[in-house]
Amino acid sequence: MKFRTLSAAAVLLFGLGGSAFAQAQEKVTFMAFDVVNFRGALEEFITEFEAENPDVDIVANFTPQLFNQFLPLLQAGNLDDITFISSAAFVPFLASGRLTPVPDDFTAKLKEDLYPASLGPVSRDGKVYAVPYNYYPSSGVIMYNEQLWTDAGIDPSQAKTWEEFMQLAQGVTKHDASGKMTQAGFSAQQEQHTIFLAWLLQMGGTAFDENGKVAFNDDAGKAALQQYADIFQKWKVDDYEFSDTITGFNQGQIAATMVGPWYDSILAKDHPDIHVGHVAQPPLPGVSADQPDYWAIKEVWAHLVSADGAKKDGTWRFLEFLLRPEIAARWSAFSGEMPTVSKALALPEVTDTVYIAPYVDALKYAVTDNLTEYLSSDVLKEMDKMLESVGRGQATVDDALTNAEVEINRLTARMER
Amino acid sequence: MAQSKLNRAQSRFVWMSLTPILIYLVTFVFYPFATSVYYSLWDFFWDEFVGLANYKEAIFEDSAVPEALKNTLIYAAIRIPATIIPGFFIALALNRILVGRGFMIFGFFAPYITSMVAYSAIFLYMFSNLGLFNVVLQALGLPAQPFIRSVDEALPSLALMDAFKNVGFDVLIFMAALQNIPRSLYDATSIDGASPWQTTWFVTIPLVAPTILFLVVIISIWTIQVFEPIYVLTQGGPLGSTRTVVYKIWEAAFSAGRVGYAAALSVLLFLIVGVISIVQLRIGRTKWEY
């Protein structure tokens, strides 16, 4: 009898204790993109964080449909506590004022710890709306297939100007008997709008005025767009009808490109047989060799905190954990993304990773400009259309710029109502 | 009195039979449609009632909409005859084959029951520079083609791929129609000395005309709503040359986050499909009645 009473009491106590523990353990939901280089690193970090913080349970939801799910979830008010997503995805909602700014004390920490240009894409009117975690540096550094250049007996680092680089790239470009391209010397298609924006800055231009109207239909814009068209029309080292950048580079049909370290990391894992070299982008015509190779921060990947998530202590503790320099550096090495945490840039995980290190030097030239408030996906599509139409020779530079100006101004006007 | 009780019982039976269908229609047809119409009058970005502004933008301002409509109609114009004509002749041939017919029907029907996403993914490789089509072309001494990377070739490539996938459906429907044609009509044409071509043209085709009309209507409705191959293979490119109306709706809703605008486009698409279907049915009724 006594034993049974004691057992019942023990069960009751255990039950109560268990439920009390369960109540004390704060659940923080976390949604992120389901790609191998993201998921692997983030799952590892979550395990480490929970070991350090047993009172917080991070419930991760990895989805390959992140971008398609994000906007409907946001509109329905059903976002997870934290969503790790590209800043481009929530640009329209920054403008709408529906997002809650990051608390002041956390903003102060971000301003202290992060590289300054990373805050631009998630800020508006002096307020920070998300926690930037990595850059998206798609220009500034040319990556090339060492084998293809060696086979052609050409060293891409010999080019001192962009025109010289294009001439060298012509030597690596191949055609069949009918004149069809079989190997591209340089492909710009994958990140065409990022490259255009970077070149616009390098030419002394800017993308938008303070009212969100297109400001690149000017001499700088024409010069940048002409350089882009020349890749296809003058130098003929790339062809839209030949191959897309990623497939072509993977298949050894594209000799050089500017994509970014994320692609380097995937190549290192999936195509270890392709040896990739890196050279800085030489200066464009009319740009002094002394002028920095500005590259445009059109977006960062950032942790977006929902209104419910902002009320949870566990949310901010988890984000603080992720922003530790050693965690950010490991994130960088694993994912191939450039960390936003300044101190992480000096750690061996970053400096010793062959596909991250070349971009660290370029980082000092990163410019947010006033791009990101207006670069929604439909605006980027119009920009891509402009670039592709001149690349394919279906529009003149002047016509393409004018058409893009009309369409983009129509789209940005909605956000400025 | 007995009559009245019977009517009540009949009435109850009718209502009981109709109730599940009504629930289905209300839940999955009328309610979503009414919601779409309601959403189409809003801009959710600003949580603002905008009346017909989304329709005005779609019809008069957004240049991508008429382009998408044109692409959709071109796609349908290629896709519909590209399944119906081969489907008819394949069915005609299979109708005369006695050995291995089931196997051959399965061969034509297998792509139809394959997932469009999986099927498109396979064609992604077949259309590439090193893909099957270019390997064959080059083996024949012909120049390689860009297919889905060309502004001119992308839409026809997708429409023909779609047609090849679905030809088995047409074959099956035509075979059912051909088996309903009385044998005596063929015997009579044979006695009259008609050639096989004359028999096909003057007997078979008129008798399967209602089937052709059915296929034209149903395939028109399907092709006007084409989405998966565009999503998997071209994302509307190159240069918007494969952006169809449904892909444009998807872009508006999920890429640009403009649910109200996407709803307005959906309502317009519904009207277009409705008008095309009515026109097709009227044409069929007046000309092809036999």
Automatic annotation (TrEMBL), chain A:
Pfam families per the UniProt record, alphabetical: SBP_bac_1
InterPro entries per UniProt: Bact_solute-bd_prot1, SBP
Signal sequence interval, chain numbering: 1-24
Q: What is its main location?
A: periplasm
Q: Which residues form a coiled coil?
A: none
Q: Where in the cell is it found?
A: Periplasm
Q: Which keywords fit this entry according to its UniProt record? A: Periplasm, Signal
Q: Say which family it is in.
A: Belongs to the bacterial solute-binding protein 1 family.
The name on file for this protein is: Extracellular solute-binding protein
Q: Which organism is it from?
A: Devosia algicola
Q: Lineage from the top down?
A: Bacteria, Pseudomonadati, Pseudomonadota, Alphaproteobacteria, Hyphomicrobiales
From TrEMBL, chain B:
The protein here is known as: Sugar ABC transporter permease
Q: Topology versus the membrane, per the UniProt entry?
A: Multi-pass membrane protein
Chloroplast: present as a keyword of the record? Answer: no
Its annotated compartments are: Cell membrane
* UniProt cross-references to InterPro entries, sorted A to Z: ABC_transporter_permease, MetI-like, MetI-like_sf
CDD domains listed in its UniProt record: TM_PBP2
- Give the signal peptide range: none
Where does the ABC transmembrane type-1 domain lie? 69-280
Q: Which UniProt keywords apply?
A: Cell membrane, Membrane, Transmembrane, Transmembrane helix, Transport
User: Where is it chiefly localized?
Assistant: membrane
| Keyword flag Transport | yes
Instruction: Give TM regions.
Output: 21-41, 73-94, 106-127, 201-224, 259-281
- From which domain of life does this come? Bacteria
